[in-house]
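FAQ

Q: What does a record look like?
A: Structure on top, sequence underneath. For example:
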């Protein structure tokens, strides 16, 4: 144990301190307005996100998970359909497929980026495949040009899961503008984080956008008139208003994450047992997580030692989705060695835009000690 202050894996306080007056004034204004669900604040955020990402339509909803579900439903995905996605991601990416009655199919990951690829997706396509959900893991996406070409060849829809990479670019365009439709999470720990759950759907397809707007409010376009079975997934005005305060700062914050990642790269260079993250040549990495590999037989002990030393290291993710009990019960027997190996080796280090070098030095020193003692 240590007497030094605990270093969390993510620290929201610097953002709050930076924008405290504006955030608090905005929160009080919304509370005094009496308008707490959808309304002008949500419409304003939708317009600003659409402009930021370079898309025609943005639809606010309750969470990133709801964004995935509603997007799939709007695409017409349902029973009998298969959707290919990553086995190495948060559970919502596949759960959303199950919740619309379809079957998630897991493609192998690239060991250097942890993302699925056009090649691994191609190997998983069957006559029942209807869509692909490429997950932009840890802050960078797979090669979307290659995935879109594959999707066009097979007549498949592409739903980007941008929960961990808001603001990242591939070429001149941002993730969330590259597929048929995209789902975003504004959970508090994300690169653009609310003060609770919040999500967004983006698309350039007007018909898809209208369908999503219908589905987020019980399938209703006007009071007491329901043309579809929908969901209760309205974005709170308070969350939208706070996100509007933060959005103009996002590119600077992402640049802060990239600078912190470069410092970690430098500090970790003398540690041969560590494999730092790789930035793919096809796009940006905005480092929602800074995730490295360590020896699998000692990973858990290394992580525990760091935690005991006051450093909040964690593993995202310690069990691939295809090995989860719910999917074993459903009869999944697929073997995906790279996803399984990654799950045994990864550790994410503390990361936020304003993390300073001294804090990072302490993190790396704890890791160095853990490698020698764990």
């Amino acid at each position: 144990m240590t007497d030094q202050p605990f270093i969390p894996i993510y620290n929201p306080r610097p953002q709050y301190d930076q924008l405290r007056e504006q955030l608090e004034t905005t929160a009080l204004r919304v509370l005094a307005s009496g308008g707490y669900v959808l309304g002008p604040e949500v419409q304003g955020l939708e317009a600003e996100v659409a402009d930021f990402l370079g898309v025609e339509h943005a639809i606010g909803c309750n969470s990133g998970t709801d964004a995935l579900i509603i997007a799939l439903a709007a695409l017409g995905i349902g029973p009998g359909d298969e959707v290919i996605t990553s086995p190495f991601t948060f559970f919502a990416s596949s759960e959303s497929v199950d919740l619309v009655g379809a079957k998630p199919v897991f493609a192998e990951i690239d060991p250097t980026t942890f993302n699925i690829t056009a090649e691994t997706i191609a190997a998983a396509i069957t006559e029942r495949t209807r869509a692909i959900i490429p997950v932009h893991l840890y802050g960078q996406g797979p090669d979307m040009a290659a995935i879109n070409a594959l999707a066009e060849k097979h007549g498949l829809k592409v739903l980007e899961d941008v929960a961990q990479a808001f603001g990242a670019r591939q070429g001149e365009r941002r993730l969330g503008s590259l597929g048929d439709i995209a789902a975003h999470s504004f959970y508090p720990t994300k690169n653009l984080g609310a003060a609770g759950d919040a999500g967004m759907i983006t698309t350039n397809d007007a018909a898809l956008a209208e369908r999503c707007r219908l589905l987020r409010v019980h399938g209703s376009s006007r009071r007491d008139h329901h043309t579809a079975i929908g969901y209760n997934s309205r974005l709170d005005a308070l969350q939208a208003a706070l996100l509007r305060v933060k959005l103009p700062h996002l590119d600077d914050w992402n640049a802060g994450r990239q600078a912190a990642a470069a410092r970690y790269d430098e500090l970790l260079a003398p540690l041969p047992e560590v494999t730092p993250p790789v930035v793919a040549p096809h796009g940006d990495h905005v480092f929602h997580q800074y995730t490295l590999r360590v020896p699998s037989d000692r990973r858990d002990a290394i992580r525990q030692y760091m935690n005991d030393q006051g450093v909040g290291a964690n593993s995202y993710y310690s069990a691939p989705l295809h090995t989860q009990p719910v999917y074993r019960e459903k009869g999944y027997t697929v073997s995906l060695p790279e996803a399984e190996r990654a799950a045994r080796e990864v550790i994410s280090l503390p990361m936020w835009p304003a993390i300073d070098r001294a804090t990072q030095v302490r993190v790396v020193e704890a890791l160095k000690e853990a490698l020698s003692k764990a």
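Q: Is there anything notable about this one?
A: The radius of gyration is 21 Å.
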